[in-house]
Amino acid sequence: SVEGDVHRIPMKDFREGVVVFKRQGKYYFMWSIDDARSPNYRVGWGTADSPLGPVKAAEKNFIVLQKNGAAVGTAHHSVVQVPGTDRWYVAYHRHAIPDGNGYQRQTVLAKMNFDANGNILPMDPMQPAFQPGDAGEPIVGGKGQPDRPNYLLAHFTSETTDGEQIYFATSQDGYRWTDLNGSKPVLRSTLGEQGVRDPALVRSPQGDKFWILATDLRIASGKGWHAAMHKGSTKLVIWESTNLVDWSAPRLVDVAGAIPDAGNAWAPEAIYDESRGDYLVYWATISPADGVTK
Fold first, then answer.
1. Across-strand partners of 169?
2. Hey, is 78 helix, strand or coil?
3. Can you tell me the distance from the alpha carbon of 156 to that of 25, in angstroms, rounded to the nearest whole number?
4. What phi and psi, each to the nearest 5 degrees, are found at residue 275?
């Protein structure tokens, strides 16, 4: 039977479909906003120290599941944790694709990730929870399989408005890749040309620090390749992290400014020199050599 006192728990923009779960000592509340018939049906979230609240709405990424492309009406969900792991999934419904509406819906699965501070990261309804050929989440002896290490790819995408920024993707086999952050930039350069290309991910020998080195270049600004080659930035953009999740603000380092008539500094890479206990950074620069600019 259902007995006991009734408690009223206010939640920001709440409509229906509340889900509550506990993770690392914190209670997470997730709920649906708007109407299931609306394309804008979406999921917000907050946290509490008690299952009775009060609930504090998330200040960062309050909406973690919402329409994108053909996927609309994305809410009214449930949450499942793979037993014995910190892997989480959300099952929700959306308007059927194609030709669906608020009464013709389909159930969809999304993987739910958290940042280092326990914040739920936005989920992309156009990104499948599993790739073709994946085994899913086998349960053996009542528990999920141990986490498998992933490869991390840092890259830019195109010469569009947001294409020349830092994007992340992960893979367990180096063949099938999954975009992170809803296929949106993870890091943005607000310095120099306010765009980056050719990122290189560098790991310290101890594995306790990571850096991203990138070309300070934004072709989408309309400057053209000739100007970029001969009158471009001589600086590199650098980010630093200790966990690949939380990154410093970008900084500019002028590596080619002292080279006579240097036109740019492109495509950096770095290695650790054990004999010196220091890093060597490589890049390409257009500059005169033997009477030829190349």
1. 153, 179
2. strand
3. 37
4. -65, -30
Helix (H) or strand (E) holding 88: strand 88-95
pTM of the full predicted structure?
0.61
Amino acid 55: pLDDT: 96
pLDDT of residue 66: 96
Residue at token pair 């890479």: 269
All residues at 6 or more sequence positions from 275 whose CB lies less than 8 Å from its CB, including other chains: none
Name the DSSP letter for residue 30.
Answer: E
∠ CA 206-207-213, nearest 5°, is 115
Do the Cβ atoms of 233 and 259 come closer than 8 Å?
no
Residue ranges in the chain whose pLDDT is less than 70: 1
Contact call for residues 37 and 103 (beta carbons, < 8 A): yes
Contact 292, 284 (CB under 8 A): no
Residue 228 one-letter amino acid:
A
Which residue in the block uniquely carries the two structure tokens 């959300």? Answer: 90
User: For residue 218, how far is the Cα from the chain centroid?
Assistant: 21
> What's the token pair of residue 67?
């329409």
Q: What is the pLDDT of residue 137?
A: 87
| pLDDT per position as a tens digit, 37-68 | 999 999 999 999 999 999 999 999 999 999 99
d(CA 267, CA 233): 12
Alpha helices in the chain (DSSP H): 225-230
8 Å CB contact between 154 and 170: no
> Are 36 and 75 in contact, with CB atoms under 8 Å apart?
yes
* CA-wise closest residue to 53 among 2, 9, 87: 9
To 5 degrees, how large is the angle CA 220–CA 222–CA 227?
110
